[in-house]
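User: 3-hydroxyisobutyrate dehydrogenase. Structure?
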Amino acid sequence: NIDTYGFIGLGNMGGPLAGRLLDAGCPLEVFDRDEAAAARLAAQGATRRASAIELADSADTIFLSLPTPEIVRQVTLGADGLIHGKRVKRVVDLSTIGPRSAKAISQALAERGIVYVDAPVSGGVMGATRGTLAVMVACPRGHYDALESKLKQFGPVFYLGQEAGLGQSMKLANNLLSASALAITAEAMVMGVKSGLEPGVMLDVLNAGSGRNSATQDKFPKAVLPGTFDIGFAAQLAYKDVRLCVDESESIGVPMIVGAAVREMLVLTNALYGEAADFTDMVRLVESWGGV
Ligand code: NAD
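Assistant: Predicted structure:
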C-alpha cells in the first residue's frame, strides 16, 4: 500500500518543483493542459495522465501549482475535478489563491473525505529550481508530518497551523511586500537615473544601505538592468496576488493604502504590456512615464 503522488500544473513553478520530486526518487504522475509542459516532465521520468480526474483515480496525494483561484476551483471541484477521483486522499495546493478560496475548497473536499493542504510558496523560478522556496503550510498536523519530507524538497517549510487559509494569508503578506518593493524601487531608480546617476552604482549603494530589498538585490540586477524583463512571474499573477491581498484586507477591515496603489500599477502594466507581461515590466511603466 505505497502512497502514490501526482502533480497538476507544470508551468514556471510546477515544472521545476515536479522535477525536484522526481530527482528525489519520488515517482510522479502528472497532468497539464499544456501538452508541451507535460511532455517535459515525462522526459524526466514522470507518468503522464490525460486529465485531472484520471490522475485522481490513481494517485493518493496530488500537488497543484495552478495560476488562479478560479482554475484551482475548477480542477478540484469542477465536473471533471479531482474530487470525483477514486483514489485521491490529499490535495497539496502550492498555488496562490487567497484564504477565502482555500477555506471554501478545503470544506468542499472535506465533505468527500479529501484533505486540503494549504501550501503556497515564495522565492520565484530560481527558488523552485534550486529548492530554496519558503513553503507556508496549514493543514491538520498529521498530514503535515506525513508530507514534510516531500515539502522539504522545495525549500524551508513553515508550519502555520491547522486551518486552511493561514498559508494563503502569509503568502499574500509576502507578495504584497514583494510587489510594493518592486514598485517603489522602480520610482526611486527612475528618479535617480533621470537625475544623472548610473543605475549599477545606484544598486550598489542601495544594497549597502537601508534601501535594500528583494527588487534591488534580485529583480533589478537579474532582469531590469540587463533589459530582459523576464523574472518568470507573470504581471497578471502579481496583480492577482495584490488584488487578493487588498480584497482580503478590505473584508477584515485593515487599511491597504499602499497596496491599492501598487494594485493599480499592476493593472496599468497589464494594460500596456499585454497578457504576456512579466512582473518586472512594472519598471518599464515607470521608465516610460518618467521618460528614461
Ligand atoms: P504558470 O502559468 O507558469 O503555470 C501554470 C500551469 O498550469 C501551466 O503549465 C498551465 O498550462 C497549467 N494549467 C492552467 N490551467 C490548467 C488546467 N485547467 N488544468 C491543468 N493545467 C492547467 O504559473 P506559475 O508562475 O508556475 O504559477 C503557478 C502558481 O504559483 C500561481 O498561483 C502563482 O501565483 C504561484 N507562484 C508563482 C511564482 C513565480 O515566481 N512564478 C512564485 C510563487 C508562487
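Residues 169-290 form a domain with the N-(1-d-carboxylethyl)-l-norvaline Dehydrogenase; domain 2 fold (CATH 1.10.1040.10). Residues 8-14, 31-34, 37, 65-67, 71, 74-75, 95-96, 121-122, 124-125, 232-233, 237, 241 surround nicotinamide-adenine-dinucleotide (CB under 6 Å).
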